[in-house]
Amino acid sequence: MNKIEHIGIAVKDMEFSCSLYERLLGATCYKKEEVVSEGVNTAFFKTGVNKIELLTATTTDSPIAKFLEKKGEGIHHIAFDVDDIVAEMARLKAEGFVLLNEEPKFGADNKLVCFVHPKGTNGVLVELCQELKS
């Protein structure tokens, strides 16, 4: 794993939260995107080398909707940048970690992604992200 790619924050109201984070970070949202397969809308902010991803549910049965219902708004996951997501997934499986998907999926911000189950990471949902090359 190379670095923290972003921190994902679950929010109920994207418009309100974008305004809040623009004021908080002193930075404007540089990208909004819907990930239909996950039932989520995303908004990205950058401060220096750090990125924040806001996530809100687009369907009542999406993982974000379930998270918000169970835990409320707040940090949802920490994402790590990787060079080779397939190799990293194999390494983590060999180390005994449980992956939430068997194959990488297309995610927001031009990434392939995979999530590691929080039961094996002290309650933290970990996302692996590999930049898709153009």
From TrEMBL:
Superkingdom, taxonomy of origin: Bacteria
Keyword Isomerase among record annotations: yes
GO terms for biological process, alphabetical: L-methylmalonyl-CoA metabolic process
MF-aspect GO terms: metal ion binding; methylmalonyl-CoA epimerase activity
Organism from which the protein derives: Pedobacter hiemivivus
Protein name: Methylmalonyl-CoA epimerase
UniProt keyword list: Isomerase, Metal-binding
PROSITE patterns: VOC
Domain VOC: 3-131
Family: Belongs to the methylmalonyl-CoA epimerase family.
Known EC number: 5.1.99.1
Gene3D superfamilies xrefs: 2,3-Dihydroxybiphenyl 1,2-Dioxygenase, domain 1
InterPro entries reported for this sequence: Glyas_Bleomycin-R_OHBP_Dase, MeMalonyl-CoA_epimerase, MMCE/EMCE_epimerase, VOC_core
